[in-house]
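Long-time lurker, first post. I've been practising inverse folding by hand and with some scripts of my own, and I keep getting stuck on stretches where the structure tokens seem ambiguous. Below is the full token string for one chain I'm working on. Before anyone asks, I'm not after the true native sequence, just a reasonable design that respects the backbone. If someone could post their per-position residues I'd love to compare against what I wrote down in my notebook.
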């Protein structure tokens, strides 16, 4: 399949009403302008959406005809990215030596490395818990006692996160390669059921790969979120105390599929722990991106920072005691943004809330992991500045159907990442004066970058606190207490 033949947008179902781009929380267009933009994208392949899309899936949820307009954005990116991916994409490509996972392994504590080693076991097994791409960046979450009863935990970055990230780049050739690898592996293992610790990967396995790439999977897919709620309903997990917190919830992009079923599952888990929910301004089917998806349009780190900061502000503006983030990828990106912004709002994964309500003490390393992430991103930026060859767009390696060894992190990267991590965790950085300076600079830079960019594109300044978009059709679900509590 090439970019020319790839068609996921259902033009036959589109009446050019503009509801999709009017609802887009990044375009924030009045209806007439939204109609013009979708028309331009269909007819000429140009649109502001190609510049600002955060891959949030809101437009798909807002389309009354199921035409899948986000997939039209992907089709256009697909043509552009066929020629090669920008250097920043190396970070999320396990076939590149200096990626997030290989870099993190250089600085992770031994207990987490032991977990990752144990998960890398693809021997035959009928039922597994697939640990997930970004759960591998925060593996300590799966050590919770309330998860006893899960089937064997299995996972490795060699599965490329079931292609979830790569789908967002529009590199459909690679998505197909990963689909073939997964088909082969799961069939050889004799898998009948997969419980996905990253529900977003569950959506890719159950929706995107079978429906759009013809993947033939002969197994049932269930999200860990659903498994956890069932354990609570069946009283297999005894909750011994109400947490009594007011929390806000961050919904991820793929949670908007299947009519937002997983969004409600997670809210039900949260309520059972004795927490009260207040929704952020953009919630559920209109939730903002954590910032990660902002990379897809232009692969610029400042796009991730300004988008993530906007989301963090919305979570903080609820006045909640804490935020619950059920996608591990969103959790680590927002943790990074939170640390740099100097926010004191605690973040919890639902598993941690349940562990606490069951009387346990979860291992909470999100803040430490955020600085680990800062170290590996700093190493990437140093290489970007120093080596022209690293800066150039690259063609990712072919991914064969069989599992093949991944490249090792080069010794120089290992040394630099360790040194940077040691620095970031030391008192030289972790002191009040430096943290305040980092926070001030970060917030100013994020807000100024966002405002300048939106001015350049002729988009209204939503401001980092988020104002109600004029062109929204239907409610911006949120503001105040959850309507479904
Ligand atoms: S909302 Fe759906 S039908 Fe309306 S313009 Fe967008 S894609 Fe077309
Ligand atoms: S996916 Fe989200 S950011 Fe992208 S065009 Fe659709 S609504 Fe806008």
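-- Answer (accepted) --
I ran through it position by position. Result:
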């Amino acid at each position: 399949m090439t970019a020319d033949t790839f068609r996921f947008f259902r033009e036959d179902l589109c009446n050019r009403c503009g509801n999709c781009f009017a609802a887009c929380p990044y375009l924030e267009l009045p209806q007439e302008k939204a109609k013009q933009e979708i028309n331009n994208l269909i007819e000429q392949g140009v649109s502001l959406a190609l510049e600002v899309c955060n891959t949030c899936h809101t437009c798909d949820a807002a389309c009354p005809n199921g035409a899948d307009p986000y997939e039209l954005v992907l089709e256009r990116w697909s043509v552009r990215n066929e020629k090669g991916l920008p250097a920043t994409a190396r970070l999320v490509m396990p076939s590149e030596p200096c990626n997030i996972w290989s870099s993190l392994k250089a600085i992770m504590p031994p207990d987490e490395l032991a977990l990752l080693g144990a998960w890398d076991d693809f021997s035959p097994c009928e039922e597994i818990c697939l640990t997930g791409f970004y759960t591998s960046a925060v593996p300590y979450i799966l050590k919770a006692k309330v998860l006893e009863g899960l089937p064997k935990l299995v996972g490795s970055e060699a599965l490329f996160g079931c292609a979830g990230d790569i789908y967002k780049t529009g590199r459909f050739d690679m998505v197909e390669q990963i689909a073939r690898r997964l088909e082969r592996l799961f069939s050889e293992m004799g898998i009948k059921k997969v419980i996905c610790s990253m529900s977003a990967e569950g959506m890719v396995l159950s929706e995107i790969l079978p429906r759009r790439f013809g993947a033939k999977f002969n197994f049932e897919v269930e999200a860990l979120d659903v498994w956890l709620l069932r354990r609570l309903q069946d009283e297999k997990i005894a909750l011994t105390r109400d947490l009594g917190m007011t929390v806000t919830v961050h919904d991820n992009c793929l949670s908007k599929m299947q009519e937002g079923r997983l969004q409600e599952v997670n809210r039900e888990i949260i309520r059972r722990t004795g927490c009260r929910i207040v929704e952020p301004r953009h919630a559920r089917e209109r939730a903002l991106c954590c910032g990660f998806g902002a990379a897809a349009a232009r692969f610029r780190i400042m796009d991730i920072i300004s988008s993530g900061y906007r989301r963090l502000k919305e979570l903080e503006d609820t006045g909640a005691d804490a935020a619950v983030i059920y996608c591990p990828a969103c959790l680590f990106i927002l943790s990074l943004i939170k640390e740099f912004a100097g926010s004191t709002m605690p973040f919890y994964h639902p598993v941690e809330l349940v562990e606490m309500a069951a009387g346990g003490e979860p291992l909470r390393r999100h803040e430490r992991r955020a600085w680990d992430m800062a170290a590996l991103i700093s190493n990437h930026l140093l290489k970007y500045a120093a080596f022209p060859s690293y800066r150039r767009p690259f063609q990712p390696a072919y991914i064969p159907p069989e599992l093949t060894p991944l490249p090792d992190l080069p010794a120089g990267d290992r040394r630099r990442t360790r040194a940077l991590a040691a620095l970031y965790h030391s008192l030289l950085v972790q002191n009040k004066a430096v943290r305040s300076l980092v926070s001030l600079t970060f917030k100013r830079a994020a807000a100024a970058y966002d405002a300048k960019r939106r001015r350049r594109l002729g988009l209204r300044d939503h401001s980092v606190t988020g104002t109600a978009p004029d062109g929204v059709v239907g409610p911006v679900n949120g503001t105040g207490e959850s309507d479904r509590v």
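A couple of notes from the structure itself: Confidence is low (pLDDT under 50) at residues 464-485. The pocket of iron/sulfur cluster (ligand 2) is lined by residues 24, 26-27, 49, 53-59, 70, 73 (CB under 6 Å). Happy to go over any region you disagree with.
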